[in-house]
Amino acid sequence: MADHRDGLPQGKTGNLLDRSAATPDTFQDPGLPPHRPRSTDVAPGPAKRAERQVALLFAVSIIGSILFFVGYFGVRVDGDIYAVTDNAPTAALRLQNLLLGGGIALGMLGIGVGVVHWARTLMPDHELVEERHDVVTEAQRADAEQIVDTILDESGIKRRPLIRNTLIGAAVIAPLPFVGLLRDLGPLNLTPLRHTLWEEGVRLVRDPSGTPIMASDVTLGSTFHVLPENLSGLSHDEGYLDEKAKAVVLLMRLDPDTVNVSPEREDWNVDGIFAYSKVCTHVGCPIALYEQHTHHLLCPCHQSTFDLADECRVIFGPASRPLPQLPISVDADGYLVARSDFHEPVGPSYSQRIIAVNEMAEENAN
Q: Where are the transmembrane segments (predicted)?
């Protein structure tokens, strides 16, 4: 009579999970499942069709990489992309972004899907079991070389020049867009970050209208996105966007009694009106959020937070340096103007920054 509580005969005890008493014959090796050939293995028509499909996917990758370079070098974004009266620069920017993003996507997707489709339809899919071993002897190295040759033969890359040639073309061209993107990170010495268009007497103007700002326009708690007035004279070919990205400034007015000002910066503000670089010192994202009650500036990219009341000291987040302050004053007409350029490089830290800071300090001293 069986004991249904543990599955053992009556009078027997034991642990069903205990395999110490199991013998090699207890579990039989089921072996490999029967091989089911694909249509491409038994008929030349489907195989040829699959070959053309793989080559087409690699060709799509090549076309995508070419589209990237068309957008990168062929589409020009001239003028102010924020202009209200003329949307041509904005349309050009959208077209360029479409070609850049779509080109990279097609370049990577074509290679990836093409290789997967190649492996699933044309490469051998027979099952096998092979023991791994260390390659130590010359004979074993020769065996390993033979295995590689076998893999190349089975992949069909020698017998299918169409796939081979399109794959080589796609593999060569696909990484080139990333070289172009790395070029946009700027020169290796990063000397352009040392100076901006700000200089003594340059008026502060609103972004994007370009109208000058009077000290009386800046009320307590207000915020302005500011550019140098001399930026409007630059064209796209003369580096308009690059100079704008470096020179953009946030202008705010605080109660002077609530602000901590260093002795060397006492004349850098106008009755509590302060100007700080809008470029985050972490990775260069634009500072865009201002908490009026706490006087905190927040970077939306990685949440670095700067205390405006304490010379934009970092109080939270990955940024390691305060935002550079732009010294300002008022001209004879009551408009806010810059006293000088920034006294330190704007933007994120980089390896040569200490050298640049020392050189700029010498320039300001002279």
A: 54-75, 95-119
Host domain of residue 229: 191-365
Together in a domain, 167 and 196: no
Instruction: Please state, in angstroms and rounded to a whole number, the distance separating the CA atoms of residues 253 and 259.
Output: 10
| Residue that the structure tokens 């202008």 belong to | 251
Both tokens of 166, joined, read 């399109």
Buried b (16+ CB within 10 A) or exposed e, 48-59: eebbebbbebbb
For residues 309, 315, 317, 321, the Cα torsion angle rounded to the nearest 10 degrees is 70
Q: Which helix (H) or strand (E) holds 91?
A: helix 88-121
Cβ(321)–Cβ(349) below 8 Å = yes
The model's pLDDT over 77-97, given as tens digits with 9 standing for 90+, comes to 765 544 544 566 778 888 888
Give me the number of domains the chain comprises: 2
Q: Rounded distance, CA 1 to CA 4, Å?
A: 9
Please report, for the domain that includes residue 220, its CATH number.
Answer: 2.102.10.10
292 and 252 in a common domain? yes
State whether 156 and 212 are in the same domain: no
pLDDT digits (tens, 9 = 90+) for 93-126: 888 889 999 999 999 999 999 999 999 998 888 7
- H or E, element range at 150: helix 138-155
Is the omega angle on the peptide bond into residue 208 within 30 degrees of 0, that is, cis? yes
Which position has the token pair 């169409």? Answer: 162
- Residue 204 · residue 249 · CB < 8 Å: yes
Residues 175 and 204 both lie in one domain? no
Clarify whether residues 208 and 171 are in a common domain.
no
Residue with token string 């040759």 = 149
- pTM exceeds 0.70: no
